[in-house]
Write a sequence for this structure.
């Protein structure tokens, strides 16, 4: 490599490095704001602002969904498997909403730590599965990763 | 003199527009044929024979367009930035031309990924668009492509335009790892990566194989589109060269 080319190579590398450094500093500074939602642990620990429009995300707790018989009001709890937050929502839920499913709710938190949602979005994971396979797995009593699913089958019987 | 060539001979050979043109003449039909075959097989397999998802039903099938286009949008950007760097360091005209040819193809792929993602997001998440880190960084990628195309066309001097766009694409390169790892670094609505060559796929093989066929098909299509645009650009820029005159008068 000629000295001239080497110099240009170093310039290119410096340019890329400067870009990376700038963006990583920015991302570090904005870390809280880049995350789309607060987890139940963050909410319970008081990291989320009260009475402000925020998003909360977590898994819908099995058996926590209570539908009102004569309105669209629905109550459920979300968890990250260490803390749980109660959510109240009036409206139509996405098709993928179900117990044990991840959701992201937009709304506000009150003083009592109850989250009133104005929008609920369903989150899904990357573990796609044909229906027959899931049926077969459930019969065998294991989940998609081959781990035994004791709690899930008992919750399923209750429905 | 000992440190003169650290790169193989074909690298320097490809730098000659004439050699590059002849070389791609030989490659083009193979890639075009492979792209048509793989995309036909992949689409039929994905839409007709791959099983449904147990939660999402048939709307899951949009993955077979969404994931390949998103992968391509990032790979093309990487190609463009590397060619930009080669153009700056080695002053290689062909590299400039490849970078120039990449931009609109990459922009179309980023656009396709965003559109298919929105169409998929409405029935599954319940929203067309969410400002989460993955979606936003992908939108930035699309705007980077637009910026690069606009910057190139704003300059009359092609060498200068290539240099400016190369610098812009190198600065924008930082966005690629952000897109890739956004789902791991931050809380997002978007799920984690579906497709990885290093990890065991999270979905069963009868869903994963058509996706693999589609991804390879998209890459072959990209190679075909890139070569077509590159050859066009070579003929335009080398129009005064003897071999181009001969080639054109033959037809």
């Amino acid at each position: 490599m000629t000295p001239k080319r080497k110099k240009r190579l170093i310039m290119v590398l410096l340019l890329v490095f400067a870009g990376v450094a700038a963006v990583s500093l920015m991302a570090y500074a904005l870390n809280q704001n880049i995350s789309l939602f607060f987890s139940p642990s963050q909410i319970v620990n008081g990291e989320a602002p009260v009475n402000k429009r925020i998003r909360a995300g977590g898994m819908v707790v099995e058996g926590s969904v209570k539908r009102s018989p004569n309105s669209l009001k629905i109550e459920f709890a979300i968890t990250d498997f260490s803390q749980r937050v109660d959510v109240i929502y009036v409206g139509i839920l996405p098709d993928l909403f179900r117990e044990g499913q991840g959701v992201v709710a937009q709304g506000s938190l009150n003083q009592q730590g109850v989250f009133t949602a104005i929008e609920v979005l369903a989150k899904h994971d990357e573990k796609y599965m044909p229906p027959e396979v899931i049926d077969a797995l459930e019969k065998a009593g294991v989940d998609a990763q081959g781990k035994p699913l004791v709690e899930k089958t008992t919750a399923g019987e209750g429905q | 003199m000992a440190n003169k060539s650290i790169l193989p001979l074909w690298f320097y050979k490809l730098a000659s527009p004439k050699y590059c043109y002849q070389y791609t003449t030989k490659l083009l039909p193979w890639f075009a044929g492979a792209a048509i075959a793989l995309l036909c097989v992949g689409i039929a397999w994905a839409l007709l024979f791959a099983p449904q998802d147990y939660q999402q039903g048939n709307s899951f099938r949009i993955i077979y367009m969404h994931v390949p286009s998103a992968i391509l949008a990032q790979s093309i950007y990487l190609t463009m930035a590397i060619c930009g760097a080669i153009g700056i360091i080695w002053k290689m005209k062909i590299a400039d031309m490849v970078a120039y040819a990449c931009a609109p193809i990459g922009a179309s792929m980023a656009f396709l990924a965003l559109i298919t993602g929105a169409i998929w997001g409405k029935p599954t998440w319940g929203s067309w668009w969410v400002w989460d880190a993955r979606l936003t960084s992908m939108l930035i990628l699309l705007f980077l492509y637009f910026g690069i195309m606009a910057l190139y066309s704003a300059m009359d001097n092609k060498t200068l335009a290539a240099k400016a766009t190369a610098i812009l694409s190198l600065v924008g390169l930082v966005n690629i790892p952000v897109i890739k790892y956004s789902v791991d670094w931050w809380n997002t609505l978007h799920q984690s990566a579906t497709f990885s060559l290093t990890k065991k796929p999270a979905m069963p093989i009868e869903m994963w194989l058509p996706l693999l066929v589609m991804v390879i098909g998209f890459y072959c299509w990209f190679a075909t589109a890139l070569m077509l645009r590159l050859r066009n650009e070579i003929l335009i820029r080398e129009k005064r060269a003897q071999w181009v005159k001969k080639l054109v008068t033959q037809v």
In short: Helices of chain A lie at 3-29, 31-34, 40-44, 131-140, 150-158. Strands of chain A lie at 54-60, 66-67, 73-79, 84-90, 102-109, 115-123. Chain A has a mean pLDDT of 82.
